[in-house]
Amino acid sequence: MLVTALTACGSSAAKESASEKADKDPDQLVFVAIPDEESTTLQQRFKPLIDLLEKETEKKVVIQAATDYAAVIEGQRARKVDIAQHGPLSYVVARASGVKLTPIGAQVTKRGEDPGYQSYGIVKKDSAIKNLEEFAGQKVCFADPNSTSGYLYPKAALRKVGIDNTKDITEVMAGGQDASVLSVDKGQCDAGFAAEAMVDTLLPGKGSIKKGDLRVVWKSDMIPGSPVTVSDDLSPALRKKITDAFVEKANEDYLRAHGFCTGDACRIGENWGYVPVADADFDSVRDVCRVTRDKQCKNPE
């Protein structure tokens, strides 16, 4: 399901020593993420980070585009992915389904911020829809079944106002955060859901939508920041190098100061950089899963 073939990671026996595990570390690390648009944009956006990781790990790092979060999870399960950018829900799903991975960092837009964001419910500016209750009977776009801000939190919110996704609306899976927003903007959906950054900065910044053409009629509670995870199959020493690179050096200030980039290229997308996260930070997502009992949660911890 990945756009291009991934290089397999070495597996490890449960009782092997740290030195034996290090000997089995791959010569090439595979980093997987979901692009906002075409994969070339993904390559450009992460280039300073990839260069940093190669320097810190002394290994070649290849970034690959995945079609959706399910592809990310299955790539990790098959031990073909070493580092992955998840959504909060896809991380919880991966962990609950037995994938051996550890969250190490999440992106923030500004230095000193806590990682987290909101989901938006959006309509066109001239729509008669004023609130979530009025989504009933409408064609509603969602991002991805494994998306936290583009599906899980919206579904929970709709349930609270008495709307059943399977009966009271026409549910459309647009295929991504950007696709959900663009479908509403083009009138292909009457309403939709997506992460705040996609509505406020990413798509307007690219000229894909005009500010003011869409209206926000609902905002979620704060959602934990989308985590980067590292495979537990890697040796402890290599995992530490990757973790330290993300949480200590993968930020706009360090990348610029050490010559990895110049200007706006030092921002990873619209973000300043990464800050540390832990598994417990995603307990609120597990709580929403328990409320919705959504099949996509697949037995959250």
From TrEMBL:
It comes from Streptomyces filamentosus NRRL 15998. The keyword Signal applies. The lineage of its organism: Bacteria, Bacillati, Actinomycetota, Actinomycetes, Kitasatosporales. This is Phosphonate-binding protein. Residues 1-24 are annotated as: Disordered. The keyword Signal applies. It comes from the Bacteria. GO terms for biological process: transmembrane transport. Belongs to the phosphate/phosphite/phosphonate binding protein family. GO terms for cellular component: ATP-binding cassette (ABC) transporter complex. Keywords: Signal. Pfam families: Phosphonate-bd.
